Amino acid sequence: MEPAILDTQAVFDKFPEEPALKALADLTVAAKYDREELTVTVARENIIAACEAVKQAGYNFLEDVTAVDWYPSEPRFQISYSILSLSLKRRIRLVVRLAGEDASLDSITSVWPSANFYEREVFDLFGVHFGGHPNLRRIMMPEDWKGHPLRKDYPVEGYR
Predict the structure, then answer these.
(1) Beta partners for 94?
(2) Backbone angles phi, psi at 62, to 5 degrees
């Protein structure tokens, strides 16, 4: 396995012909290459533009959208989008970091409709709001459930 590259410029220098990096050059906040996976962090306001850019670069399959709660660290939430290129046989992970007091970003369902249920799951379990989502409501928990069970500050036995 290749050693990790954690410096953004070093990642761009290592992969000058990578179509996703070319497409994301103006949108990248940070980039790393670790465990043979390319991860590019973008600002919250650029997530739709970043998804459109990687799609134009040949990445055509949204595999997953998930979240990590880094509580008590800030920015608290990390939203990760795993995107594949079936023709290039490559994968890229787009990441957006969100502060705990303002955990919201735009929905990417306009770019990939398959994000619909993944975003609902992140909303339900982490409480991250996706603006412009066509049907943002609970998917795993009952509608009257209090809180978001995968937040690290959620009580072990729930709110009573």
Answers:
(1) 40, 81
(2) -80, 110
Residue type, 151: R
**4, 34 Cβ separation under 8 angstroms:** yes
Q: Mean pLDDT, to the nearest integer, of 98-114?
A: 97
Q: Nearest CA to 32 among 53, 17, 15?
A: 15
Could you report the per-residue pLDDT of 54-78, keeping only the tens digit for each?
999 999 999 999 999 999 999 999 9
CA distances from 151 to 45, 68, 131 (A): 23, 9, 20
- Give the whole-angstrom CA distance, residue 37 versus residue 95: 13
Beta bridge partners of 81: 65, 94
d(CA 58, CA 18): 11
Confidence tier at 88 by pLDDT (50, 70, 90): very high
**Dihedral, CA of residue 9, residue 91, residue 52 and residue 61, to nearest 10:** 180
Burial label for 136, CB within 10 Å (0-12, 13-18, 19+), is middle
